[in-house]
Amino acid sequence: MSNSQLRQILRRYPKLRGPLRKAYRSWQYNSAWLIGKMRQDKLNLIEVDPQRIQHTVNQNDPSLTGNAVWHLGKVLAGDWDLNGVPVKEYDQVYQILSAHLQQQKPFAEIPQFQEKCVAIEQGQLVDSCTTSAEYLARWQNIMALYEDIEKNGYKTQLELGSDNPLDEIRVQIGRHGEILFEEGLHRLAIALHLGLSAVPILITRRHSDWAALRMAVMKIVIQRGFIHQPFDHPDLDSLPLLYGNNLAEQAWYGHDRWQLISDSLPVTNGTVLDIGAYFGYFDHRLEGLGFDCFAVEPDPENLVVLNLYRTMHNRKFTVWPTSIFEIKQFEFDIVLALNIFHHLVRTKQDYICLVDLLHHLRCRALYFEPDDNAGVKAYRQFNANEFVEFVQEHTSLTESHFLGQTKEGRPLYLLT
Known about the structure:
Layout (H helix, E strand, L loop, with lengths): L2 H10 L1 H25 L7 E3 L6 E4 L3 H4 L8 E3 L7 E3 L6 H10 L8 H11 L10 H21 L4 H4 L8 E5 L5 E5 L1 H10 L4 E9 H17 L9 H4 L1 H5 L12 H7 L7 E6 L5 H8 L2 E6 L3 H13 L5 E3 L10 E8 L9 H13 L1 E8 L14 H10 L6 E6 L5 E5 L1
Parallel strand pairs: 2-6, 3-7, 5-7, 8-9, 8-11, 9-10, 11-12
Antiparallel strand pairs: 1-7, 2-4, 5-6, 12-14, 13-14
Helix pairs in contact: 1-2, 4-8, 6-8, 9-14
């Protein structure tokens, strides 16, 4: 049976449309859900700021045009993540809602609404509606949903008691981490108009380039139980909660260190040495401010993530995949030594190398986050104050400025 024949039957027997559509969707969603699980995707809902969902997937992609769900859990290359439509322009939903809410226009007087009614009268199926009266009733239901969300908050399908777990705002992740709209346009438009800070989303497909980065991060989470630095991306920052242990439900360190550093930068440009760069959190941000960064990271698994994320965001900072004791350049405007030096005093040899490194370093400022290594077997034991004095003793930095404490209770100092 063709789609046109099906539409003719539904027009002739409109009472069949609701039950048939519900039955088909239930079968489709539950089948796709099982397929997604077989593809080893946890299919958990995660929270995202709706403002981050700026564009749709490719405007000709079946997952957008046909509400297909068989791609659930897939990783796919190709250009399906390019040439999408701005969400606020797609299918005229946002414009109709804006005109009704902000301009207080009746639906019948809104040009975009009128266009949809004309399309319906010409035989098109618009938002599952076959008559203009049905389309008006559809929008009246949408406004009832708006008022419910405004009054009671946004709820997931599980909270609503729905038997369709996929009937959420669905998105896909593009090659550079773009969060691309797929389904749930009315709810997304409502969330945008209400200014909601976060809504639950379901990620259905990922570009293979992004999936490679996510898999590298997931590998670290599974092995170590957590990550040290956040990415500011829900598909990555949710991994510790999904696959980690009980050490953390998010990155071990948050944004508080960056806030302390960015508020106290002694210069507005120059060179930065990041010792133990990990995933390059600080290098991305400092390069964005105009600094020329050098990221030192010897761990091979950290390096995979560091390089993938750097390339993905077209950053130019230099990566030195080596021990800090093997670098050949020693003059920088700023040095970052955050939660790293206590690893370099555990053996006599490392301690000697650290002293030598400090003697060679020439910098205008050093951000130092010491860790109290009391109780840890080490060649030298320092508390925070002793560690600051040790660094000052072996460098030309004579002034120490306490900037504050991180959420873990560790102090952060600026040495100049």
